[in-house]
Amino acid sequence: MSTTGNLIDGRAIADAIHLQTSQRIQALKARGIQPGLVFVRVGEDPASQVYVGMKERCSVRLGIASETRVLPEKTSEDELLALIDALNRDPKVHGILVQAPLPRHISAARVYAAVDPHKDVDGFHPANMGRLLLGDGSGFVPCTPAGVHELLLRSNVKVEGSEVVILGRGNIVGKPLAALLMQKASGANATVTVCHSATRDIAAHCKRADILVAAMGVARFVRANMVKPGAVVIDVGVNRVPDPATKSGYRLVGDVAFDEVQPVAGLITPNPGGVGPMTIAMLMQNTVRAAEMQTGLSRADAK
Ligand code: GUN
Question: Which residue's alpha carbon is at the smallest distance from atom 1 of ligand 1?
């Protein structure tokens, strides 16, 4: 259990997972296989540049052969689909990650459906999303929801039978996380409520949560008076707010007003240093699993 006071140390938990992942990478290398991961970034979204840079540095550190393909903002959907087709056919590439958001003229749904589901380490392909919903563990689970789940389990949080309230119904976090935590499976079996922009009285839902996950992208939305004393609070949000006192002119804040919620919460993720490192740890784990499956060392039933 990696907690200090009531803080969940996402970095320490991610490091423990990286250790297991790097052992699997060494085992692959002993068989002459190096896992390969290609990041595709379209345009110059500043947040995406930072995220992809962090993911690539981590994969290099673990011994994964990685590369980032940067395409200009004006790239057509057909050009992007052609690149994905080439990566799908390349046997040295075991994982493909197309960073979201994509420019508006490109259909994210078409792009994610074009990635070979066996290389879809993001878990965004409809086949992998469908498997998750069906409780079929043979697919890839999206990295942030998988990271939140792992963070809860490794912090000894009781998920079974708990009231989980998720703020946000996005395809990357809210929806897949709801599917994951409500599954009939040990370490899951939660009662899940998903709140969104049309929910009446969000505060009332939050207040009865044993586990509250904020993933709707509104800076400091969760205030102390919305949290049940002793609840576990997981902050997935990353929001840029203007701050003239900083060199960049902005600072990053979560969806949770950390300073006032921490004293009320039983456990809480810091932000940064909570969910972010876990997303990367799950991506590395998915990539190694993809390489194992594609090279005959099948671990279809394992994470
Ligand atoms: N943008 C924000 N989170 C993610 C993620 O997990 N994967 C990809 N591809 N893009 C993202």
Answer: 100
- DSSP 8-state assignment for residue 99: P
Residues 241 and 153 in one domain: yes
Close Cβ partners of 177 (under 8 Å, ≥ 6 residues apart):
144, 145, 148, 149, 166, 213, 215
Domain count, the chain: 2
263: tokens are: 């004293």
Give domain status of residue 126, yes or no. no
- Is the bond preceding residue 272 a cis peptide, omega within 30 degrees? yes
| Residues annotated as catalytic (active site), given as ranges | 55, 99, 122
Q: What is the pLDDT of residues 74-126, one digit of tens each?
A: 999 999 999 999 999 999 999 999 999 999 999 999 999 999 999 999 999 99
Q: What is the pLDDT of residues 247-289, one digit of tens each?
A: 999 999 999 999 999 999 999 999 999 999 999 999 999 999 9
